[in-house]
Design brief:
Layout lengths: L1 H24 L8 H28 L4 H19 L5 H32 L12
Length: 133
């Protein structure tokens, strides 16, 4: 859930703002449409969920190999960025790559917070809020 939320903010809304910058710098008319903005934002949320799934799968598959897990994760993130930037230009890379890097870094920070909370409490699962079944 956190991956999709972060994806919506950074990869969806951030990508929409980035698309506007690319249009302005290339001299195109930058048009905002509700349909286009919703589509890009939802695509960002889906991409964020995919990245979060890859992140968790790698943590499960390579639990003791931190550097290998991190390298594979970041390579996959860069591949996803480059796949979406056709044609790849310096401007597009400078705008969109930081969004993916921020998404990945915050996803890692969120996971560390959850993981450390579990270890601190000596639990495998976090307790449910009061009133939850």
């Amino acid at each position: 859930m956190a991956g999709a939320g972060l994806g919506f903010v950074f990869l969806g809304i951030g990508a929409r703002a980035g698309m506007r910058l690319v249009a302005l710098t290339s001299g195109q008319a930058a048009l905002f449409t509700v349909e286009g903005s919703v589509a890009v934002s939802l695509l960002g949320a889906v991409t964020g969920a995919v990245i979060a799934t890859l992140f968790l799968l790698l943590r499960h598959i390579l639990p003791a190999r931190r550097w290998m897990r991190a390298a594979i994760f970041w390579v996959l993130c860069v591949v996803l960025v480059l796949r979406g930037l056709k044609p790849v230009t310096e401007l597009k890379t400078a705008i969109f790559l930081p969004l993916f890097l921020m998404h990945g870094a915050l996803l890692h920070a969120f996971w560390c917070r959850v993981y450390l909370a579990r270890r601190r409490n000596g639990m495998r699962r976090l307790p449910l809020p009061e009133g939850e079944p």
